[in-house]
Every structure is written in structure tokens, then in C-alpha cells.
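WARN retry 2 of 3 for item q-0093 after timeout on previous attempt; input resubmitted unchanged.
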Amino acid sequence: MEISIWRALCILVWGKARICIFNYEWARQILSSKSGHFLKNDTTPTVLALLGKGLVLVEGIDWERHRRVINPAFTMDKIKMMTKTMVACAQNMVKELEDQASSNKNGETQVELDKQFQELTADIISHTAFGSSYKLGIEAFHAQKELQEIAVKSLLNVQIPGFSYLPTKGNWRKLTLEKKLRGTLMQIIQSRLSSKGSGYGSDLLGLMLEACIATDQGREQHQLSLSIDEIIHECKTFFFAGHETTSLLLTWTVFLLSVYPEWQARLRLEALRECGKENPNGDNLSKLKEARKLVPMLPFIIYFDIFFFL
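OK item q-0093 returned
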């Protein structure tokens, strides 16, 4: 990499130099580097409470351990098992919108897409991640959603060391939400562990607990390769990361379809060609073009190079 090119991409954020990489090969080298020079960016305690120190934030040996446990939960066969649940949740949303439209004289209804897709993705993740405990999952979602609003406000404020520990109204509310979120997730996990005789379930949490046990064949059966705290962090990570990014992607995709009617026509023809009049399933969905390949769910990823600080 020539330093002249790096200088051209260098910007200052709050006095810190940041180099924006747009080259695919450079990004691949940074993301796949095992030298230990490129580390994930530190986050604030509020964001950590929201996102959890799961696979997105852990590094090194911990990342390998988390990845080894979680990978079996995301095999193609197990993802296909969740498709019916996702379709059912989407059908419920469509039915509600149809009922709203039919109740009006003109047969139309005004929809706030962002809110609608937030509710849809929360419903899907609650069902696929927590199965029969999806109602508790919805409670966790509402607590996490309010934590998100607090986290966004904290990012816009000047970071004063120790301020988050002061007994302010906002800090008390944040602490209450953190306890509620953790308590709800703990209740779901403990309930699942206590009923292991009938299996841990086919949802994401059940698959994760099953994978934990499966990777511990050399140890006692009750010992998990991830601790309860780490499983809670992973639940936070998948709940937030899966919900927020997907709802934004859906909103933007549908907005683009509304702007370009010709795209709608092409999409309908493609869906009818691949799915016919049947509900989408894991097999025919793989034949459809993916909007996420054109519209990335994450605009950027921040890493820092410790080599310059050694």
C-alpha cells in the first residue's frame, strides 16, 4: 500500500486519524489477518450492554471458541428448518395489513414501513431464537430497543470518564433496562436447561445449547464450552444485529421498489417463476436474487491497527 494513497483517504474524527478503505483486496487482508495487528474497535459500556460481547466483539481465542460453538446452529439444513416460521410471521403481517385496508372505505391503508419491519423482524427472531418462549423474547426486544435509544444518545454526547456511573435519571433507567434484559434472557435459558430431557429445541437458542454440549464430549455433560453469561451475550448480539440490520434492509429495499415500479414487475415475475403459488421455502429462496448483495446491511466496519502503537 502506498502511503500517498493512504493519506488521500485519511480523515479526522474527534481528533483521531481514520483511514477509509474502499479497496476489496485491502479489506480482505485486514479482515482475514491473523497477525493480531488489526483489532475490533472498542465500544462504550452502553453499547456493550446493548450489543453484548458476543461473536461481533470478541477477539482471538475467544472468537474461535464462540465461532466453533455457534457454527453448527447455522448449517444450511438448520436454517431451512426456520424458513416455515419466518414465512408464517410474514403472512401474519400481510394479513394484518389486508385487514386494515379492508376496514377503510377506499380499500387502502397508510403504513409506516420502518416500524412495520421492526415489528416483523422482532417477531421472527423471537420465534426462531426462542421458540415457545417467544413472548419473553418480545419483552427482551422492547428492553433492548429502549437501550438502543439510550446508546444512540450516549454516542452523540461528549464522553466524560466516570459519567456513566453517576446516579442520574438516564443512568438509572439504563441500569434497570440492562437488568430486565439480562433477567429475561436468563429466565429463557434456565427454563431450556431444566427441560433438557425433552431436548433443547430446534430454535437458535436450543441449537446453540446443543452445540455447547456437543463440543464438550471430553468433559462432564453439564459443563458448557460457553458460560451462561457468554450465551446471554450471544443472545443479545444475534437479537440486535439480526433485527436492526434486517429491518433497515427491508425498509430500504421496499422503498426502492416503490420508486421503481418496473423493478416490482420483474420481482413478481421472478417470484412466480421460482416459487409458483407455493410459500417460499429453503430450496426456492436460494434461486432468488438477494437484495443484500446490492445494498449492504453494514455501511462500514471499524478496526484499529495496534502496530502503530507498539
